[in-house]
Amino acid sequence: MEKYAITGMSCAACQAHVQKAVEKVEGVTSCSVSLLTNSMTVEGTASSEAVIKAVEAAGYGANTAGASSQKGQSLSADSLKDKETPVLKKRLIFSLIFLCILMYFSMGATMWNFPAPAVIRDNPAGNGILQMFFAGIVMVINQKFFISGTRSVLHAAPNMDTLVAMGSGISYIYSISVLIRSCYEGHTGSHVQGLYSESAAMIVTLITVGKLLESVSKGRTTDALKDLMELAPQSAVIIRNGKEITVGIEDVNVGDIFVVRPGEKIPVDGIITEGATAVDESALTGESVPVDKTEGDHVSAATVNSTGFIRCRAQRVGEDTTISQIIRMVSDSASSKAPIARIADKISGIFVPAVIVIAVTVTFIWILTGAPFSDALTRGISVLVVSCPCALGLATPVAIMAGNGVGARHGILFKTSEALEQAGKIRIAVMDKTGTITEGKPSVTDIISAEGTDTNELLSTALSLEQRSEHPLSRAITEYALQTDIKSAECSDFAAIPGKGLTGIINGSQICGGNLSFISSKVSVSNEAMSQIEALSSEGKTPLLFAGRNGFLGIIAVADTIKEDSARAVRELADMGIASVMLTGDNIQTAEAIAGQAGIGNVIAEVLPDGKDRVINRLKEYGKVAMIGDGINDAPALTSADTGIAVGAGTDVAIDAADIVLIRSRLTDVPAAIRLSEKTVRNIHENLFWAFIYNILLIPIAAGALSAAGINMSPVLGSAAMSISSFTVCMNALRINLFDPGDTRHYRSKGTPAAIPQEILHELSGGKDRMATKTISIEGMMCAHCEKTVKNALLDIEGVSSAEVSHETGTAVVQINADVTDEQLTKAITDRDYTVTGIS
């Protein structure tokens, strides 16, 4: 995708004409032009030279955006600098000075007897010539309207400037003809009747007032993007040849070591190699609390080092830094075209020619009805100057830009305008479990010691084993034990048995830890412990059992706990009429336990990553679907969904599969993003309504449709109304900046969430493929031969995938299909002359 800066556009008609011209270039597959940012994005194989040539042939200027910006930046702060407002302000000041002089002589001296030289006051022709002189000066000051308007006509693409130039120019030319005729006929009186000199000057002056107000308000809609760009540091202190030197940010390379002192901004993305500090990341995430960082931790450009001195190794520089990616994403989104803007674009393309035809028609109709030529001309001119295509062209982009800016300030990044628009239509929110609903990191939740065993002994034994393993569950137990100052014993002959557990020797005695099937094959596990294990499992926790020389020691339960805001996010979504669905590859028991804690009623479990897109496509039958995940193993599902949302992206904001990227690891940012989308789309509707209703009401009034009722519109009033219209649209869009996406107080519920049939959830979960673990207590087993007999009997049952049998503990632990019944298990064992005393 190539981005271009466009010059010479003044209204929506210009925007439409540029887009049409570029779309005709061979090799261009798509083109989007933004009147707000005066930019254009082009996709396809067409060369830059061909695209620029097409724009210039259409009567406008173009250059590749960022070509003159500093190294590593695709968008410079200079490209967003408000260069138009100072020029318009200067034009307006000079226009007002000469307009006041004109009004003094045209009205003050002749109608109100203001002091004036006798040669002016008593000479109608001289007064008229003076009026035309000062009106001409005002028109020369505002020559841009006439140059742009004429050029657009020559390129067969009339624009707003054409309407203004025609309205003002016709008024001026008609006034000159009246003045010549008056002089030729020898007019006597205080002044020449029928001059429109003040109208000619007033039209361009009032339109300039409107353009100035529009320019100021448009500039404010890009404030958020400008603020982001200003965050990026311009220099860095790096270590070269053992010395600290200050270099421009463009001279920092990957691998350079840079230093950051307290209070300074971090210049590029990197990893801390020395020191510890707290980093204020509010510029990127919106989080006000500084984050503690130490050696090995990542730091991002534009964040602030709050406390300590640190040395870092540069990892991502230039346009690869997080802040640069965010800037590019916000800019690209604002430059892209939202689907809702298409109708306005179509109308803008034919608006100006249609208005010209209407103005000419109105003039002739009034002449045919017997009205004086001057009155008929006034109607036509009023139609020209009151019509406003600018409001149509700005209705969508100003709101999109403001919405993107608010989102960026709250850590919500919309990749395209379409993503911002479509998010508000979501009716089903499908969420991955690990890392989205849960923390994504297991932690110890329960410690249950066996009778006669001290908790410290259990933790010490567990620590002695688990600290030698790299398994995530082992790290959770190790971290917990170390925090409680538990001491570990020297462990020898350590061994990890995949899928089962760990073993080792402490003081000559074997110790072991692992799952139920493994530990129950080593020692006897009481019925009370079995009940506790079942209860923990039903809560979605993983019970790890430990045993030593004295037998069974106890249970340590580990679980991936839900985030503190997950339940709140689900409630907010429900209040918005959005159904929440958990989609996970975990077993159904764990999934339902986590879903219960989060308040999610719809669970689809045991689905592999490559099967998630199938689930998404099926759920689309019940409404617009959003897939919410971490963006790592959810790419197919994120792509398949109507809207893909990546949560907790942190510094990795460039997740290709996601339409919306949430920097923070907060699930409540999902409903916040949806609320922001709805607010923005509602604002666009308001803008479009104003733009359409303005023209629908005022063009007929300007044409004289209500003249019978005494309601008429002069060209001056028409130009004033035109000035206000686009300004109103921009100011309305600025209200989005006052919106807090996280505030739910004034949100109106959309009713009951979509109901998804339970049989569909069961079908999508795999139904018969769901597995469960059961422990069978057996009497009568005496030896290894008995174990083999029972195991073979169980494995002969269809749906039993594995069986661990121990004659020492008198148990068999089986992995079975959810449809295998206890009666089937009991019958298989009793048929071999053993007794089943219980199944759990």
Please write out the topology.
Blueprint lengths: L1 E6 L4 H12 L4 E7 L4 E6 L3 H10 L3 E4 L12 H4 L3 H28 L6 H4 L2 H18 L1 H12 L5 H26 L11 H25 L1 H9 L3 E6 L2 E6 L8 E4 L8 E6 L2 E4 L1 H4 L5 E3 L4 E2 L4 E2 L4 E7 L5 H14 L6 H27 L4 H14 L2 H21 L2 E3 L2 H6 L5 E5 H5 L5 E7 L5 H12 L5 H12 L8 E6 L3 E6 L2 E6 L1 H5 L6 H12 L3 E7 L2 E9 L6 H10 L3 E5 L4 H11 L3 E3 L7 H8 L5 E5 L5 H6 L2 E5 L12 E3 L6 H34 L12 H20 L23 H7 L6 E9 L4 H12 L4 E7 L4 E7 L4 H9 L4 E5 L1
Parallel strand pairs: 15-22, 15-24, 22-23, 24-25, 25-26
Antiparallel strand pairs: 1-3, 1-4, 2-3, 5-6, 5-7, 7-13, 8-11, 8-13, 9-10, 9-12, 14-26, 16-21, 17-18, 18-19, 19-20, 20-21, 27-29, 27-30, 28-29
| Percent of residues in β-strands | 15-25%
What profile does the largest beta sheet have? 7 strands, mixed
Q: Overall pLDDT, averaged?
A: 84
| Form type | elongated
Task: Walk across the major sheet and give the strand order.
Answer: 14-26-25-24-15-22-23
Low-confidence stretches: 66-74
- N→C terminal distance: 60 Å
| Strand elements, count | 30
- Determine the fraction of residues in helical runs and give it as a percent range: 40-55%
Radius of gyration based on Cα positions: 38 Å
Q: What is the number of helical segments per DSSP (H or I, 4+ residues)?
A: 30
Structural class: alpha+beta
